[in-house]
Amino acid sequence: MFEAKLPNASLLKKIVDAIKDLVNDAPFDCTENSMSLQAMDASHVALVALKLDNGLFDMYRCDRTINIGISVANLIRALKCANNDDSCMIRYNDDEGDTVLFTFVDEKRDRSQDVTVKLMDIDSEQLGIPDQKYSAVIEMPSSEFQKTCRDLAMFSDSIVINASKGGVTFKSHGDTGGSTLVYNSSSSADEDDSGKIFFNVKEDVNVTFSIKYLNHFAKAASLSNRVRLSICNDVPIAVEYNIEDNGYLRFYLAPKIDDDQNID
Prior knowledge:
Layout lengths: L1 E5 L2 H11 L5 E6 L3 E7 L5 E8 L5 E4 L3 E6 H8 L7 E6 L6 E8 L4 E8 L17 E6 H11 L5 E7 L2 E8 L2 E8 L13 E4 L3 E6 H8 L7 E6 L5 E6 L4 E7 L11
């Protein structure tokens, strides 16, 4: 038996909205401590890793480790039935068939709605993401990261991130022009100033990524005011949003390889 109640359906809506362009089928792994998901995009370039600790839920019960495979499209249909402020109860009983039950309750209107979603057999396995010591970690407002990705996408399909002890640079250049955004080391701020960018650079980094994927990742801005970018040469970037100090949504993206030098 698995039961978990979120105080607001809006949290699950934000999560699904952040991953829907990358993940078609969502294999949720449920344990006594957390509800998690790992999934690759169709091109196997990006990885999505979600963890929701039981502290996020008003009520959480998981008698044994189970896997709940759901089509993201079907999950979106179910969540459209919920108001943002509705509580969201998720129930699955392996003795009662191959569906998961969502119950949305609007206490103000004394209204509840049950929605059943057909489960899927999703062939997936935990990839066991190795611990990586990154050369540079950048923390910035989620809205700033979202704007940076959106602005630089107008000039190229790639974004170059350069980090050194003196500053961090985001740039894109194409046939019609380009844009460069620079954060200097003097950009540091008081600890309680959430509008600033902070970075810790141990070694210089110069990496290139697909701007399309970073724009997808930036859609998770509604989950957290801050985003952490962890980068290292020749290693996938990790883009992390904390979820109310009781979970996270992380994206991993392999760097692009510059083949221009091989083109005559």
